[in-house]
Amino acid sequence: MSMLARVQVPAQARRGDVFPIRIAIQHPMETGYRPDNFGRRIAKNVINTLTCRYNGVEVFRAEMGSGVSANPQLQFYLRAENSGELVFDWVDDSGQSGSERAPITVTA
Amino acid sequence: MSADRRRFLVSCTALALVPALARAQQNPQRESLLRDVTRGAPLRTGRVVVDTPTLADNGHSVPLRIAVESPMTAADHVRRITILAERNPRPVVASYALGPHSGRAEIVTRIRVADIQDVIAVAELSDGSFWMGSAHVIVTELACLEG
Amino acid sequence: MLTLSAAAAEAPRPQPKSGIEYAGSDVRALQADDFGNPGMLWVARGEKLWNAPAGRSEKSCASCHRDAPATMKGVATRYPRRDAGGGELLNLEGRINQCRVQQQGAETWRYESEELLSLTAYVAHQSRGMPVNIGINEANRVNFERGRDIYYRRQGQMNLACTHCHEQNAGRKLLADTISEGHGNAYPVYRLEWQSAGSLHRRLRACYFGVRAEQPAAGSAELVDLELYLASRARGLRVETPGVRR
Questions:
Q1: pTM for the whole thing?
Q2: Is the Cβ of C38 closer than 8 Å to some Cβ of chain A?
Q3: Domain B41-139: what homologous superfamily?
Q4: Model confidence over B43-69: pLDDT tens digits?
Q5: Quick check: C176 contacting B, CB < 8 Å?
């Protein structure tokens, strides 16, 4: 199954305003310490990097380890500059990647 | 330096410096961990708020908010926030790169906390200074487990 | 040690209290936050599955049932349910699998699979805020009585029945937990301990484990009967799906 994610970005913001961004991704964030039902260790597999680009410019980057909870969620802030698009990209240890995008309209 | 070798050296130092023993036992890895984050630069306490419940319902998912006092301008902003849980098997929980476009140096997330411990956040500012804050978290256990 | 007796079981019960009322402030806030509630990820996946064609019919749920927020509203408040014409008592999971086989020409989903959990969560979510409304009638009385018998039957090495914890000692402390009344009105729930969403039957099996009893299979007739009895106890409580629990 593909990685399911939800992002929350205000549809509209005034230039200069600081607004919250929220993202939640369905992912077990396997620590590598957990055994399966047969007692075999499940390999570590966490979303190790998540980036957010605002009109092509990287404005936020998270590097995560096994200490981040399963189904990771994150809230951070951005300052509204221009209308355009926020693009979120992430990748896990197994190489599987995911992406979400959200438009934003910035008013004067 | 490998983690094992570092631990070994830390315990040697602790044995040599008896007055420091109690402190070293409490936080066996803290100093080397912080040194890794600051790359040896001085670290001051303050400016960083770590907000988390004192009694966490479940160590798998502890809510955490980190806020750093900063105007977040091009000239004066937070470059990076690193979260450490020193008693976790991998103590570096996450690290976030921010900048003036962030507008506000605040992160809200949920983390795994393996044991009763201090959760530490270190902020690296644009002037190269490092600041830290921490919060003590007590992880409680469920009465009924699935086995 | 507690001395437990089944005699108190006959006393009239006050208004049922949802498990969320026994939860701490973090769990409550998480459940109330539709973005932060991780169970909403399963609901979102369920919505995709609702609209995805499946089986030989190449029909999706939406092909027949259309718009779930309209057509599935209130459905979860009436489950488990037995058709008037007979057949077995079905919970939502059972009904979904029956639909897959009979209407879509698809294979059943394994109980506790991500697909079955997600679609169940999506369907139950359409009843969020509505009171559990189980009626006991000729069609389901046998199941109700069997479920009640299980509820009051001592079992396992601990020799405990459901009632001993969740009726006679609800609200009291067990280690760092507060014992809840054991209602199913928030299921499927996201449980922090599971680090995942899970079904009521997963939770019930954990209770069987807790009293060191043999665990019936998820989806078994025994657990669906017990689910019906629990729903009758929870009558009037509002559906919370997807709930959040410790």
A1: 0.91
A2: yes
A3: SoxY domain (2.60.40.2470)
A4: 999 999 999 999 999 999 999 999 999
A5: yes
